Amino acid sequence: MGTTQPEAVPEPKYWHLKTVLSDALDSEFAVGEILPNERDLAARFGVARATLRQALEQLELEGRLQRRRGVGTSVAPPRMGVAVTDAGPNRPGAAGDAWQPIGSAWEAPPAAVARLLETEPGACVHIVRRTRRTRGQIVAAELLYVPARSVPALAAGPAEDSTAVLHELQALPLDGQDRSVELGSAGADEARQLDRLPGSPVLVVTTRYVAAGRTAAVAVATYRADTCKLTFGESTPPAVALAG
Amino acid sequence: MGTTQPEAVPEPKYWHLKTVLSDALDSEFAVGEILPNERDLAARFGVARATLRQALEQLELEGRLQRRRGVGTSVAPPRMGVAVTDAGPNRPGAAGDAWQPIGSAWEAPPAAVARLLETEPGACVHIVRRTRRTRGQIVAAELLYVPARSVPALAAGPAEDSTAVLHELQALPLDGQDRSVELGSAGADEARQLDRLPGSPVLVVTTRYVAAGRTAAVAVATYRADTCKLTFGESTPPAVALAG
């Protein structure tokens, strides 16, 4: 139907191994089971350690394997569905909010956030740090950026505590919100909160809260990409993991 | 506020280099500019090639760099916002659909899709392959799975062409749709369509179309994670890239 097909791309070495390993996981291993060490696995499949490692990284990316420091590589359970649209019913901090505040600061946001908020470069805003738990596990870390104009009852400057900022946000008449989802890598702080290594792939959800046609607040949430899939929509979300 | 903090995680070697490189990209390079080769870069920053490569991979994950075969590593433009909720107004193939059909097949879907469709394992369904273009570039490849019961006017078996399946889908009264977004890796076919290497990170969007309380069709779309961010919601999406 008239689509140009780019020329065939050579298959990397580890690709076939990944398929073979994936079948072995299905047929020989149970969820949570620890795999043999890399040397034994490489010997069993007759490949170099480097090739094996690439295949394992791939399977980790697809959510099939979990690697934990000091534990080893185990077969991952299916990814948890985490409802993004239900996370903040109307506004951050409202009843039923899935997020727990863990602290706050009065600092200049990154340039990209300042542009969304239409604040001056270098100008300070309230920053509330929050985490989200699903089934007892921290699945996401968030920075919520609130300019002083959105919480006029608070004095500009460090807030007494994070609840004060969230409480004042409740008074703001919000028009709506929009979101983007993109791939990112965990920064040092998020990595600590999510119990991942810095640089681990994460899903970054940026939510813009709109009031009176302007951005009233911006939340940048970092979800673990290994254990979570984000769900959107009215009906019950798909119950299975589907990875490329 | 009573959140357990996991013990501090050691910062990997390449982490500091990544930050330094990121600042250099901001201050010294323009979008599209090709970086010096790895040997020169490693020498300039006084690091081993392996460390440099890790930092470059990280910046690619965050959408700051693009690596193309035979071209080299260049500074990436900001990620394109691709509206997911606008992709299929009500149903696949309706007017305004962002997806172009490129072929169809009559095959058994993967087990996970069969479960969503509630078809027998191994039973064949219509599979329509589609791609989505944004600003002239293919940003996503999709497999749309349609069980025979959802298109009763078509004979079971290979459809005459993909448009026939999409056309018959228009007759189906849909109740709604829900979605999940997760990290995946490009399979060989998607990689070819997206002009990426197999195994490249992708964002996998699974859409379930619901009719009469049942799953009427399932679409599994694979978006390039390097150049796209997915947008959701009513207002104009955030205009800037925000990576971990």
Task: Give a brief description.
2 copies of one chain form a homodimer. By secondary structure, chain A is α+β, with helices and mostly antiparallel strands.
What does this entry look like structurally?
- Chain A folds into two domains: 13-75, Orthogonal Bundle (Arc Repressor Mutant, subunit A); 81-242, Chorismate lyase, CATH 3.40.1410.10.
- Chain A contains six helices and ten strands, in the order H-H-H-E-E-E-E-H-E-E-H-E-H-E-E-E.
- In chain A, strand 5 and strand 6 form a beta hairpin.
- Residues 1-8 and 235-244 of chain A have low confidence and may be disordered.
- In chain A, strands 4-5-6-9-8-7 form a six-stranded antiparallel beta sheet, with helices on both faces.
- Chain A is elongated, with a radius of gyration of 22 Å.
- The first copy, chain A, is 24% helix and 32% strand.
- The longest helix of chain A is centred in the N-terminal third of the chain and has 16 residues, at 13-28.
- By secondary structure, chain A is an alpha+beta fold.
- Chain A has helices at 13-28, 38-45, 49-61, 111-117, 162-169, 188-194, and strands at residues 65-68, 72-75, 80-83, 99-107, 125-134, 137-146, 176-185, 201-211, 214-224, 228-233.
- The two termini of chain A are 24 Å apart.
- At the A-B interface, helix 1, helix 3, strand 4, helix 4 and strand 7 of A face helix 1, helix 3, strand 4, helix 4 and strand 7 of B.
- Strand 7 of chain A pairs antiparallel with strand 10 (228-233) of chain B, so a sheet runs across the interface.
